[in-house]
Amino acid sequence: MNNKLTVPVILVIASACGLLMLSFGFRSSFGLFVSDITTPNNWGREIISLSLAIQNITWGLVAVFAGGIADRFGSTKVIISAAILYGLGLWFTAGVSEVWLLHSATGVLVGAGVAGTAFGLILPAMARAVGPERRQWALGLGTAAGSFGQFLIVPLVQGLISFSDWQMALHIMAVATLLMALLAIPLAPYSGASESAQQALIEQTIPQALREALTHGSYWWLLAGFYVCGFNVAFITVHMPSFLQDLGFSAQVGAWSIAIIGLFNIIGSYSAGVISGKSSMRRLLSIIYFSRALLVTVFMLTPPSLFGVILFSAIMGLLWLATIPPTSGLVAVMFGTRYMSLLYGIIFLSHQLGSFSGVWLGGWLYDHYGSYDIVWWLSVGLAIFAGLAHYPIKEEPVARLASA
């Protein structure tokens, strides 16, 4: 392990942050295309909601296998392959007129692309590069980089849509995904396959690692909590622009709402990384989820206003991806970093099952009841459950690592 911020390590951190900026910036922009895709095709919002739900569940499923492959053979080839799939998905989404193509491109291809270019593969490489002393700092920094991409890229995409058209915006995004393939190259020395021989002696095979995690009670509580995180975040990402338009706000307000969430999440996620390196990670997670429940409750009970939207977006941004540094950090603390991509990938699959539920339910309930209110209140209840679910977690290494 390299515990110093040498020039190669700084290059790894910079490349990883740039990759996450692009990956999450593009993904966070899909809410801007809902009206453009559905209106010309006379589709209800349930159609594209299902497609984006498929994207989320594909992301989660592929992340598990991508993490296992990366831990075994290295992450660079996985990331490059995923970037190509990401670009193809964006390209085929432009001008889509068939439901099956929308589900295949926006759902399956983009979902697989995000799986191989997001936190599950990038954060473990950053954690290995800096070593245990700076691990939580690196996890917070990487998460903040994804948030900065959301803040920077979503308004740019809205600008492309306004000044050209939505198909051209998607084509430009598709070409830009090739940059992610280039940024993956410096990460190669810190892939799972490059763990030192000494570290490998105290660890185990993939089946043994899976058995150890799946028989550990704290791991299951993390799975349950991260399901809720996915539900909250994906519902807002996809449906917030349309929700605000239904309230009478312009499309630009919806875009800036998502961008403000991304801006303040830079602060929130980085701070969560720093705080979780100095205090209890499970308690921090409980505070985050309880705070989400309170925030949504206040937002739903107050009259809609531009100030209210901005305030909600800013506070939600502080809580947005702040769950990732402590969640991924708990995986590393409990089980080590050798198979972190795989074990975090399984937890992230739970996150994506929640994302699928939030995105699809949002569209289905809107088409049937003409309102998003049920999903908002369901988010409150789930956030309270997640806050309680983290209390039983044992924030300590498993016996195998503790004895070593």
Number of helices: 19
The rough form would be described as globular
Low-confidence stretches: none
Q: Percent of residues in beta strands?
A: under 5%
By secondary-structure content and strand pairing, the structural class works out as mainly alpha
Taking all residues together, what is the mean pLDDT? 86
Overall radius of gyration: 20 Å
Fraction of helical residues: over 70%
Order of helices and strands: HHHHHHHHHHHHHHHHHHH
Structural features, described:
- With 404 residues, the protein is mostly helical.
- It has helices at 7-27, 34-41, 45-73, 76-93, 99-115, 119-130, 135-163, 166-176, 178-183, 197-201, 206-214, 217-246, 251-276, 281-301, 306-319, 324-335, 340-369, 373-389, 399-403.
- Helix 6 (119-130) packs antiparallel against helix 17.
- The longest helix is centred in the middle third of the chain and has 30 residues, at 217-246.
- The mean pLDDT is 86.
Short description:
The protein has about 400 residues and is mainly alpha-helical.
Secondary structure layout plus pairing:
Layout: H1 7-27, H2 34-41, H3 45-73, H4 76-93, H5 99-115, H6 119-130, H7 135-163, H8 166-176, H9 178-183, H10 197-201, H11 206-214, H12 217-246, H13 251-276, H14 281-301, H15 306-319, H16 324-335, H17 340-369, H18 373-389, H19 399-403
Using brief descriptors, characterize the structure shown.
404 residues; mainly alpha; globular
